[in-house]
Amino acid sequence: MESIKQPTAVVVNDDPTQLHLAVSVLKKDGFSAVGCSRAEEALELLQSGVKADIIITDLHMPGIDGWRFCRLLRSPEYEPFNNVPILVMSATFAGADAEQITADVGANGFLAIPYKPQDLRHHVRELLSGRKPKAALKVLIVEDNATEASILQHAFEEHGYEVAVAESLSQAQSCLEAGQTDIVVVDYHLPDGPGDQLLPKCKEMASPVVSVVITG
After folding, report:
1. What's the burial of 15, exposed, middle or buried (CB within 10 Å: 0-12/13-18/19+)?
2. 138-214 — its CATH code?
3. Backbone angles phi, psi at 180, to 5 degrees
4. Are 61 and 92 a contacting pair, CB within 8 Å?
5. Sequence spans of domains, the chain
């Protein structure tokens, strides 16, 4: 029986901690992941015959930085890698700047540092499927039972959602005011009032919020 080939990811980052994190996450997700601390090392590896299915690189690195590295991979000199998906990572840029940089260097996606492991998995899977990664939907779980909250959080994160947890109505209201929330899952029985008291606040949000009240 022919074995299923693992996708190969080449990860480039001069920060040992970030490099180890990305490689570890990808290996746990079934990838054959190779880490390089310099772009020069990665280019030598690729020229030696390594077949990369995706390349993940930081931008700020000594020697050949991420900008030049990406442009080299899109040049005639490295033609075999012209169409390999590139995911750019950086702790410096976000929003429109990140989108512009991604386009300028010929990359396919951008992931801000720090990130959650499920965010990296989501971006890599999307790129390998030929899709442009979209920001993960943000879920707010409002549950004062730590066990129940943990179960819900794990279930959503396994499917690529970004999750925040609040233990009360007051905490939930603060979370809603602090930033974008796409989905609210709220227990009816909370220490400072019934969960459905949060629904009017959800309706006031600038962007539509899907609200689910649970009880049991």
Report:
1. middle
2. 3.40.50.2300
3. -65, 130
4. no
5. 8-128, 138-214
Same fold, 8-128 and 138-214: yes
Distance between CA 112 and CA 83 in Å, rounded? 22
Predicted structure pTM score: 0.66
List the chain pLDDT tens, one digit each, 216 residues. 444 578 999 999 999 999 999 999 999 999 999 999 999 999 999 999 999 999 999 999 999 999 999 999 999 999 999 999 999 998 887 666 778 888 899 999 999 888 888 889 989 999 999 888 766 688 999 999 999 999 999 898 877 788 899 999 999 999 998 877 899 999 999 999 999 999 999 988 877 899 999 987
16-28 helix and 117-128 helix, angle to the nearest 10 degrees: 60
Q: At what angle do helices 95-105 and 66-73 cross, to 10 degrees?
A: 40
Output Rg (C-alpha) for the chain, integer angstroms: 21
Question: Could you give the 3-state DSSP secondary structure of residue 156?
Answer: helix
Q: Place domain 8-128 in its CATH homologous superfamily.
A: Response regulator (3.40.50.2300)
Is the Cα dihedral 152, 140, 143, 204 positive or negative?
A: negative
Name the DSSP class of 135.
Answer: P
How far is C-alpha 87 from the geometric centre of its chain's CA atoms?
Answer: 10
Closest by CA to 210, choosing from 198, 175, 188, is 198
Question: Is the Cβ–Cβ distance between 57 and 70 less than 8 Å?
Answer: yes
Beta bridge partners of 141: 165, 185
